[in-house]
Amino acid sequence: VAAADAGDISDLLSLLGERSPGAYRVLVAERDQYLLWSARDSKAAREVDSVLAVVGAGHLPGIREYFDYPGKGRWTREELITVGNQRFRRKKKRKKEAVPS
């Protein structure tokens, strides 16, 4: 990634974090941790000396941070792979009740 591109990506991710912290958490922060765990803990990774993981440029800083400081992870693997977690569900719209006239 060219330096200018990396700066642009960093700016966009910062803006996402400011405007929509929940989206940033799910789309970037949690995924960074999950991608690192997937590459590090996969069956294939346990059978070789090194692993090549191809990730989007926006995930590289977060993955590096989790790699350098493994205890920094905020979520357990189970939390990251749980399907149907509340954060992914759409809020149901309430039906408007008829007002008696």
Give the ordered list of helices and strands: HHHHH
Which class best fits the helix and strand makeup?
mainly alpha
Taking Cα atoms only, what radius of gyration do you get, to the nearest Å? 19 Å
- Uncertain segments of ≥5 residues (pLDDT<50)? none
DSSP strand tally:
0
> What is the percentage of strand-forming residues?
under 5%
Total helices: the number is 5
| Biggest sheet statistics | none
Shape: extended
How would you state the average pLDDT, rounded? 77
User: Terminal Cα separation, in Å?
Assistant: 65 Å
User: What is the helix content?
Assistant: 55-70%
How does this structure look, described?
By secondary structure, the chain is mainly α. 55% of the residues lie in helices and 0% in strands. It has five helices and no strands. It has helices spanning 3-19, 21-41, 43-46, 60-68, 77-81.
Compact overview of the structure:
By secondary structure, the chain is mainly alpha-helical. The protein is built from 5 helices and no strands. Helix 1 (3-19) packs across helix 2 and helix 2 packs across helix 4.
List keywords for this structure.
101 residues; mainly alpha; 5 helices; 55% helix
